Amino acid sequence: MPYVTPSHPAPSPGRPRRGGRWSRTVSALAAAVTLATGAALLSPATEARAAVAPKAAAALERVSNFGANPGALTMYVHRPAALPAKAPVVVALHGCTQSAQLYADNSGLNTFADRHGFLVVYAETTTANNANKCFNWFQPGDTRRGQGEAASIRQMVAHATTAYGTDPAKAHVTGLSAGGAMTSVMLAAYPEVFAAGAIVAGIPYGCGVDVVSAFSCMSPGADRTPAAWAQAVRDAHPGFAGPWPRVAIWHGDNDATVAPRNADELRDQWTAVHGLGQTPSRTSTIGPNNTRRSEYGPTPGQAAVEVDKVPGIGHGTPVAPGSGPEQCGATGTQHFIASICSSYWITEFFGLDGTTTEPPVDPPTDPPTDPPTEPAACWTASNYEHVRAGRATTTGGYAYAKGSGQNLGLYNTFVTHTLKESPAGHYTIATGSCP
């Protein structure tokens, strides 16, 4: 039976279909996958949250040309009125079904950008990349250094340096759900670019390689040794010797979509990368709801890894509407949960609130330029192998070439095509000559 994934819209009425029971079965599978990787990759509507409508917010500034964009993403920025020279930058990655503007309006990040003077870059994916607007954290073609969505996000950081004068040594990244899993990708694939990251309800790097394994990663979660998790990170950028990014991990105790054990596996992954054990150096509670904080590392207030487990909430971004110094965000939109202002504490963890000093970080070794143009390459394989390798995606039992969206036919091991990649991350059915 073919698997399905929400990486492209369902076939149009003109595409071949089968009727009867088979059609109903495929439709049911497609609906289940859409639920699991789209709406249900975020918290259910029934979880408690205050009925607070988001404040009217200034529209984000769209950046129409930020350089090479193999992942076909859109870049937006929130720029404070008085952005200082060599300001820090925070990259923010939304969850499934969300947009950059929705994430900006509700997460509270812009509040602290205005207060402390840093640029926020909002990356946005589209339904052309994924039918449910999820970042493709489980597609190898989007999670490797120099490829797909990961390369596009890295280019946004480079553009922020050249266009807005941000400090390349003070780049940070955070995101929710699929955006949290993509935060893991960015920290592993580009550890020299980011000083720190905050993963909210996310997945360890290297867990999912296709939609089937992605489901298992979400729930019940994968159980691997700290050494195995750490090796996945090191393999993402072989030869990199550090310093590694600092990592904060946020997760709700009642998350029924991305199992809370993922917070523990993320802890195992990043403590092992930093050469630390899995026993916390310090524990405490923070915020009005007694969120449980565990810190790993010898320096108080400058933990290499931090885990924040939020009691009583499901899958979403913890926010605390209000005008107090530790409050932020809005809950009028689903998946932003009244609890604790995670953005306040994440800003503090990044060292952007003016009360802490980040440890010295080596400047990026990669220059802020477009990823190099690779010569065209070709692969001949079954549709099943093209999908596993990240050259194609699936939905409704069909395979589609990544980038071009060409229909490759049924997703199975019997249909074979030669795909040509040019530019990087854009695949088409090869016709005529092929290297």
What can you see in these coordinates?
The protein has 435 residues and is α/β, with parallel strands linked by helices. The protein is 26% helix and 20% strand. The protein contains eleven helices and 18 strands. It has helices spanning 20-37, 100-107, 109-116, 140-143, 148-164, 178-189, 211-218, 226-236, 261-273, 342-349, 383-388; strands at residues 61-63, 74-78, 89-93, 119-124, 171-176, 196-200, 246-252, 282-286, 291-296, 305-310, 317-319, 336-338, 377-382, 392-395, 398-401, 407-410, 416-421, 427-429. The strands form four sheets. A ten-stranded mixed beta sheet has the order 1-2-4-3-5-6-7-10-9-8, with helices on both faces. Strand 9 (291-296) and strand 10 form a beta hairpin. The longest helix has 18 residues, at 20-37. The protein is globular, with a radius of gyration of 21 Å. The model is unreliable at 1-54 and 357-375 (pLDDT under 50).
Label this structure with key terms.
globular, alpha/beta, single chain, about 425 residues, 18 strands, 10-stranded mixed β-sheet
Question: Could you outline the blueprint of secondary structure elements for this entry?
Answer:
Layout: H1 20-37, E1 61-63, E2 74-78, E3 89-93, H2 100-107, H3 109-116, E4 119-124, H4 140-143, H5 148-164, E5 171-176, H6 178-189, E6 196-200, H7 211-218, H8 226-236, E7 246-252, H9 261-273, E8 282-286, E9 291-296, E10 305-310, E11 317-319, E12 336-338, H10 342-349, E13 377-382, H11 383-388, E14 392-395, E15 398-401, E16 407-410, E17 416-421, E18 427-429
Parallel strand pairs: 3-4, 3-5, 5-6, 6-7, 7-10, 11-12
Antiparallel strand pairs: 1-2, 2-4, 8-9, 9-10, 13-17, 14-15, 15-16, 17-18
